[in-house]
Amino acid sequence: MKRLFLFLINNRCINQFWILIGKDNFVKKYQSNWAKLKYDESKSTQENVGFSHNKETQEAIDSVHKQLQASYLEHSNGNQVLDIGCGTGLYLVDFPDSAVLTGTDLSQELLKKAKNVVPKAKLLEGDFLSLNFDSNFDFIFSISVIEYVPPSKLNRLSQKVKLMLNAEGIVFIQYPHATTNEHLYYSDLSYVHYSPRKMEKAFVNSGFDIVSHVHSFDGRTLSGIKKDDKTYDPEKEKSFRNGAILIARKK
């Protein structure tokens, strides 16, 4: 019965209506509600945010860590760093001691664990779009969080990122990109696979120059494409090996 209910409120046809009226976030009450997540002490900090340690997944995650570190060192003009959806602090540990770290998350339990992982970080509970910050940042990043941002709020997110960045600040976004036609029509609002073209448009229209836009696992350029025809782990709906990294600089 629950599966039928979820299908009726979250499918390719009805989702266009939810997006049109700006109510596409309500699905989160029933699916992918991270605010209600309970930390499982029997699992690792990585497993608690939804990622296993199997070889293929770990290779993809390790690659993102390296690209995040390289991007900060190469592109950032300052040391003020913000992680949107920091979870257990898995990626906040990638920055040098000189970095001033801030993280946000919906889950109070994940933030408690993050405080143990990165004691020096300032951690804020809540939705990035609703939170107020004391200062701006030089480098804002988000790893595997954009898929939980409803389509009607994507432009608001890119605009707030711009607002919170200092001059010529950098944004680094890793996200699961569209690989099927179903993804382009938002068949699942609890986990959105955005088109690379749509992501670029959102940030360019908000006042960014695109620095790079590549596949997060194999490095292929994804700039300007609607969807990616190459898919890893086709038997899995959600695989971290199917992802993109968008890096942009505030004009």
Number of separate structural domains: 1
By helix and strand content, what is the structural category? alpha/beta
Number of helices: 7
SSE pattern: HHHEEHEEHEHHEE
- Identify the CATH architecture: 3-Layer(aba) Sandwich
Give, in spatial order, the strands making up the sheet with the most strands.
Answer: 3-2-1-4-5-7-6
Biggest beta sheet summary: 7 strands, mixed
Question: What is the 3D form?
Answer: globular
For the record, what CATH class applies? Alpha Beta
What do these coordinates show?
- The protein is an alpha/beta fold and 251 residues long.
- The protein has a single domain (2-250), classed as 3-Layer(aba) Sandwich (Rossmann fold), CATH 3.40.50.
- Helices cover 29% and strands 19% of the residues.
- It is built from seven helices and seven strands; from the N terminus they run H-H-H-E-E-H-E-E-H-E-H-H-E-E.
- The chain has helices at residues 2-9, 12-20, 55-75, 108-117, 154-164, 181-184, 196-205; strands spanning 80-84, 100-105, 122-125, 137-143, 165-175, 208-215, 244-250.
- Helix 5 crosses helix 7.
- The termini are far apart.
